[in-house]
Amino acid sequence: MAQNVNSYTINGTNIVIKVGDYVRIRTDDPKIPTSVAQVESLDVERQMVRIRWYYLPEETKQGRRTFHGIKEVLLSNHYDVRSIHTIQGKCVVYSLENYMNLKPIGADDYFCRFEYNCVEKCVVDGFVDVECDCEMPYNPDLFMVQCDGCMCRFHPSCKGMKDKDAMGLTKFLCSKKCSDDDAKCSDDDAKCSDDDAK
Fold first, then answer.
1. Residue 75 above 60 pLDDT?
2. Burial code of 25-38, b = ≥16 C-beta within 10 A, e = fewer?
3. Collapsing DSSP states into helix, strand and coil, what is residue 127?
4. Are 91 and 73 in contact (CB under 8 A)?
5. Residues 6+ apart with CB under 8 A from 9
6. DSSP calls for 134-182
7. Residue 179: CA atoms inside 13 Å, Cβ hemisphere, count?
8. Closest CA to 35 of 68, 95, 82, 67
């Protein structure tokens, strides 16, 4: 029976792949046996699929940085045509905000907040919020403590604490500026810091 050109059922399963789906693709790289991609088009007759790759941070020229989450991928401008049989299954790529709301996070759940230009070998400029005194983008895998005054988040180590100590706090103020009387930092202050308080 001929398959619908808009969908493909993975052999031996009831998993139906459609255009627009996020999929896990078997690769030829033993270091990264599975990669994430989005289906652009299906040619079931020729048994081929056109995909747009998502890169892992370690696949980029810049490499994996401390702010990259374990399940983070970067949308690339790398399009490819592969055998339809390299599709191993479905996955989902969320925005960071939606990923943080997942409970629990599954094995096939990923998030993306950056685009990667594989020709120029650079991350495409885009606005990303930074956190803490270290001014690094948020990593959902690292514990952070939130200031009860300014509501900014901080890595405990950047405030001279251990994670377990920060987890036990019932109240946390990041600096002398953030007091009970001043629940919010002034508009001039992008973020409270110990340096400002000295």
1. yes
2. beeeeeeeeebbbb
3. coil
4. no
5. 3, 15, 16, 17
6. TTEE--TTS--EE-TTT--EE-GGGGT--HHHHHT-S---SSTTS-TT-
7. 5
8. 82
Identify whether 33 is preceded by a cis peptide bond (ω within 30 of 0).
no
Burial 162-190 (b: 16+ CB within 10 A, else e): eeeebeeeeebbbbebbeeeeeebeeeee
Within 10 angstroms of residue 100's Cβ, the number of other Cβ atoms is 14
pLDDT in tens, 99-152: 999 999 999 999 999 999 999 999 887 667 788 888 888 888 888 888 888 888
Tens digit of pLDDT for each residue in 171-193?
888 886 776 544 444 444 444 44
Name the H helices within 6-117: 96-100
**Token pair in block for residue 100:** 């943080």
